[in-house]
Amino acid sequence: MPPALLTTSLVNTIQIGSLYALMALGITLTFSVMKLPNFAHAEYVTVGAFAALIVSLAGEVNPLLIMLAAFIVGALVALISHVAVFKPLEGREVSFYTLILSSFAVGLILRYILFMIADYFNLFDTRIRIPLQIMLRESYLILTNIFFWVVPSSILLVIALTLLLNRTPLGREMRALANNPGLARVIGIPVERVKSYSWLLVGGLAGVAGALWGLQTAVSPLMGWAAIISVFAAAILGGLSSFAGTILGAYVVAFSENTIMLFLNFNFGLDLAYKPAIPFIIIIAVLLIRPQGFTELIRRAGDLQR
Amino acid sequence: MIQVHNLTAGYGKLEILQDLSLSFGARQLSAVLGPNGSGKSTLMKAIMGINRIFAGSIQLEDRELVGMPTEAISSLGLAYVPQRENIFDELTVLDNLQLGSRSLPGDERASALDELLELFPILGRRQTQRAGLLSGGEHQMLAIAIGWLSQPRIMLLDEPSAGLAPVVALEVFSVLKELGQQGITLIVVEQNARRILQYCDHAYVLREGRLAFESTAAECLADEETIKGYLGLR
Fold it and tell me: What ipTM was estimated for this complex?
């Protein structure tokens, strides 16, 4: 594989992997705290991208403010889907499968609302108005301003989320709720309030991921949905419970989709059209061979450190 | 202190407690005894508002607990230590303790933790460890510690000595005795009747969801035949 191709694919791995990590952490958080594998997460990403697009079309050029708008809109949409759909369903003690299906339904509703909005305001195939610039060119390595927005923002947000979870009372209560919801209630943790904050956080991060995703491609109502299987693959690699595992999983999926895919294409002539199969292969392989993902490995490493 | 009137409670459609009436005295260690399935744990959960209550009332100093959410009941000064899954095993010991003391005002939290480490010295040495790695006795101490840290007036403990080696169980009982001396009202469900009767002030025997027998612990111990009969001991 020529070095130019390898370098580009590794840059893509880092850029896409960081975004996958941001999205997949939300999936893991929803699954552990709310006990819900939320497929509508894809649409919180898309909603964030559209919020970013609309704000940028309205004339805002500061990427930080664009991301803030995406955070707020994503957070609100996530909270609304909890209050309007998931919470009432939980109250009726429906089965796990009903919850999963309802998350698909919420996703569909949001997706087609976005289609209507995109149609009405003529937003198809428009881009967030931040022009692409080349910031660094070093032999084969080409880094754009998009890379410098996407990667540090994702990493900083992941660090912020980790600090929130590990260092604040709210984070501790979220971890307690994830670990043992019965006991959390018994010792008086305000479970509903903690869940609401978790939804805001999850939706907000997905929204920011959408805004960042929208910096690198055209915004479309299907963009979150197109990424969701890769994102779930990352979360499943993390055993749907470990944050470190999920982040690692995100980069593994991005590496497989970019570097390994190009390698197979270049050396064995495998058509690039097979790329979408990669996350499915990862999901099936993990569930067959190691359903707990990286969880146990990371936990053991942690126990040794202490 | 806690009055239970004509309580029928259970899970789903299943009624386990049948028209049960009894009252627990303040500043006492009350033991709730009885064979498996007699409704001991159901009674604890009913007081905490965890399971289904079909009829009857539970009053804490004239305040009706039936219908209140669990969080509100615990904020009245009740702490419940379940029999299983009574710690956050994925979190560190320190996280567990901080969760236990979360409802205290900031300045009391540190002193409560200091006092706790005197009561349970073993937990101090394990603070940074994941709670799931504790031994059986340490696990149980942590579970009791989480409940104690909210500085409750009443503690409900469901089989705190279950599955522990006899020596370790004795440590747990001596901690309970100490909690009692602090003025905390204790309601303890036990399988091991003989042992708890040496520590408690009052004993209640449940059978098939009803109160079969109650007396002071001293009477219970003296009246061995009665207790053997009710508990099915030989």
Answer: 0.90
